[in-house]
Amino acid sequence: MATPTLQPHVESFFDEDSNTFTHLVRDPHSRRCAIIDPVLDFDYPAARTTTQSADALLAHIADESLEVEWILETHVHADHLSAAAYLKDKLDCQLAIGARIREVQDIFADIFAAEAGFARDGRQFDRLLEEGDSLAIGGLECRVLHTPGHTPACVSYVIGDAVFVGDTLFMPDYGTARCDFPGGDARTLYRSIHKVLALPDSTRLYLCHDYSAEGREGFCCETTVGEQRQHNIHVHTGIDEAAFVAMRSKRDAGLGMPRLMLPAVQVNMRAGQMPPEDANDQAYLKIPLNLPPNAHKVVILGGGAGGIAVAASLLKRQAGMDIAIVEPSEQHSYQPGWTMVGGGIFTPESTRRPMSTVMPKGVHWYRESVVGIDADAHEVTLGDGRKLRYERLVVAIGLELDWAAIEGLEETLGKNGVTSNYRYDLAPYTWQLVQSLRSGRALFTQPPMPIKCAGAPQKAMYLSCDHWQREDVLGQLEVTFHNAGGVMFGVPAYVPALEEAVKGYGIEVQFHQRLIAVDGEAQTARFEVAAAEEGGEPQIVEQSFDMLHVVPPQKAPALIKDSGLANAAGWLELEPETLQHITHPDIFGLGDISGTSNAKTAAAVRKQAPVVVENLLATLAGDSLAAGYRGYGSCPLTVENGRIVLAEFGYGGELQPTFPKWLNDGTRPTRLAWQLKARGLPFIYWNLMLKGHEWLARPASRDV
Fold it and tell me: Could you list the residue range(s) of the whole structural domain that residue 340 is in?
């Protein structure tokens, strides 16, 4: 069993040609050790490799009678060629790297047109390491930190009081690593760095590179967490994430390609092996000339419900299809569950999974934001400056929650009794407030349409009132619903059941009242009341509160308008039945970004995804668009804990119930609908919809 308290003995070897440090990490109580980031010498102009540095390392190991157990790579390096394969052949040891090497291999195998037999699953390495994994070096425990940002596969090795950070950090006077390589991300790097800087100040940090900042003589590879916190020119204490991202992005835009990047990546993605020999028994490295932007058959913008569902359904129909998804988030959320979190029914953790676990196998995942769409050039621009070309584009980027539109709201969210189920981190606070409130005034707000799930503002209110009623404190509470609109719900068939709930709980409803400001410390909300007559002046009223549940105004991302793809209101302009763009037939869309008149719900996406898939494939085949979307949306209105009004409707308010009325009357609260919401829908979402299984989602047939 490894002993974490032992401290390593570290010797570092510097390769001046590539400015790289190789570290030999030794258990002080045995002869066992590990090599981190070894260098293979490479004369680029002569196209010749030598093993002088590696042989010197081997000689030292022999002189000290050391036993090498591991060769550890912190990432696929672009500054030097790895000697891992050469050393592994000489030593009886294992080779390890971060598990996301697969993504790096997938990216660069395409760039360098790797041989057909090149494995993109990391099998060239003996062990692929995940966050929290550990391995033993004699009596030392080596713990793995996933520290992406420079590349997706970067890891740091925590061994006793020492951390080997690869290219995450440089010496304090030089700053941090670049983030403009494929899969790199400045925001992610900032967070990775702060994972390292959360360690004790005395923790030793060993770097992979040093470039000797101006004014300093010599090269250094060792610093401490405390020194980095105080003095790192890019990330010292006081520099926030936004400032770092702005600095890093500007700096990276002016950097040239690393001198050895083209040969280094081709060798290092193969675990230090050369590419296979050609017919003349000679190995060659490739230099891509005038490399065009990455191109894919289908590019999907957004890795939420719509983007993942479309990708999975496409692959069900055409296995191996070239699909790229652009999505910066590392987490995927089942947002319909957040209302249930706020009502104490779900845990927040049950509504979220790592994005990697829902990403369909075989897609190219670009962990970046999208900042531009050039529909005429069939090209999108990513946040790191890369461009992707597409044959077909699917836009599923969702909408934006405009918290800043309400004065004073952002600074008081999560405290002073102000909450919202529209954020993962705030829904638990809603339940905390509901449980603690025994008397006073609770306000629930609804902004102007359109919003995600038009019933969600009421769901939070009804579940809260149900709890207060069960606790026999509802009579001591004054509950008010401030609705910017003029009706309880946009489809009249469901209104009577909602009015019964409002009456039963004693809720006061205020129509045409829009929340415009919040004073958290004073616990006061300010509303604009629409004029009773057209042309009249609105009034401003204030209301004190003990609990305030806010639904923020919601808007289309500026990206759509700036790209010329929006309707007059800024939403993606789609043909309502086919979900194809009005003026660009190679573009489709679905989900909350859509300018169609359906309800913005996950249930709508479940019906939209097969329509998009069928019609997209039809355009590729030159066929007519036969799949039709009738505007289906579903809003399970939780009027109490245990009963739901299952509102299902389409364009024009047409009722579109899934079940016959004798089984479930969707206009009345039923226990069956509750069971569907609490048990069935999460299972359908995670295990069917996101896996390409289109349960009860067959598209309507169009007359073509």
Answer: 294-399+556-701
